[in-house]
């Protein structure tokens, strides 16, 4: 088989630069090839092909428009066959249990206990590569990742805007307080003289200093806390963007490889398996994992503490990145912090009814609080095993659920879904469903990419899937989902819904249209 050379071979997938001219390489020059001659088994640039045509008038050549007829370059073949774990080894086998390509070293170590490992050469006649379909799927996923990157960049800009707006409002408020007090002093100073005037000046200085100190002690702390939130969320977004960029590069170059490996059966099969593996990584990043979860075990933990006056009624759960868990105990009006062993190590008395909770940063949450005369969002920080309440903002409607995604807060009222910024500014009402039943919009959750919103309609036994702008995309009902009371979306986009009356936990596909698994029933507790 003829082998072409590549002008550059960097690490990982960034090796499909282009075919280089054979004649130019002989002269230590690097020039991209435009023509391939099957008879000569050589590649030629526009300049060298003229000389080739003069000497070999009857040789049939093919240009880049027929690049599929070109032989696979050695660099492409070496890359496809190279083991990612043992870089000096060549992929020769396939583990059916792990669905992984492996070399002889892998078989002797990682897959030594696997029951079925087959030579790749034996699979070429039984497993179709399906490269044409994969090529289309690669293009689709590439487009979705690009859209996600644009959305993430917009999230960072929106976060910074929110912080800037909040800072301006706080500073304007302080300046307003100062101006109001100075005006009052001017009015009171009319007709005063001597000692009274001196007293007013001293009083003015004390009051101005008090206003400034109040700004330093309260408002400045609030701004600093919000700034830290913005920095933390920006870090999460940036990390996700880096993953997107890396996967986008890998997919792009695999897509390029797929176009160039022709009908070589083994390479087609290897490329197909590698493509599927990276596509699955991309779908997980996009929150479109179709993998059903498997419950390995369950356990029961008591979260009651001596100061509780009623039975514990947990209406919201939030897990921190370090494994600590926060729960809202609605009936006892508490937010409780559990350690990794699910023991209560701290709590905060809300003195109102907390109904839900969501993660803001790795050490901060937002709790939704709702009573007959109080509807608010309360921020709480976990600091050295203690719960420290921070800022809060009031709502002009009831509050039944809360979710967060990259600086956007989504709050349900029982019949509507609202979108807020972190500083409490109402952006819009995204969805509403009024009817004869109550709690038609009970709680919500957001997909990892923020492009889908999920709502449970408690009164109508439904799971609703919305687009980012609130457009209804799908409605799911199930006899095993009676009076849904809560829901959760995993980082991979797996949607979990809890049925209160049916005593079930179901996993629904990310599209919100079908059930993937029943994870728990009444028999499980």
TrEMBL record:
Placement of NHL repeats on the sequence: 306-341
Keywords: Repeat
Name of the protein in question: B box-type domain-containing protein
